[in-house]
Amino acid sequence: xxxxxxDVKESITGPFDIVTANLYSELLAAMMPQFAKxxxxxxxxxLSGVLRRQEAGLARSLRRQxxxxxxxxxxxxxxxxxxxxxxxxxx
Length: 91
Description:
Layout: E1 16-22, H1 25-38, E2 39-51, H2 55-64, E3 67-75, E4 78-85
Parallel strand pairs: 1-2
Antiparallel strand pairs: 2-4, 3-4
Helix pairs in contact: 1-2
C-alpha cells in the first residue's frame, strides 16, 4: 500500500484507488475535475467537510465529472460522501 500526501494547489497524478479530501464545499467543487482525473477506474473518492445544505450542489459537481454518490454519512450538520465513477447505466 502506498500513501501520497498532496496539496490541492499542486498537480497530482494518479491513478489512485482511493482519494480523500476534507475541504469546504466550494473548493471540493472546484477541484472535482482534478479528483476525477487522478481517480482509478474502480477507485473511490471520499469527501468530507460538507454541510448538509451544500450536498445538492456538490452532487451536481460530481455528476458533471461522471462521478456518483455511493454512500452518504450524516452527523449533525455535516456529511461525508463516498463516490465512484458512474457506469453508463447509472448516467
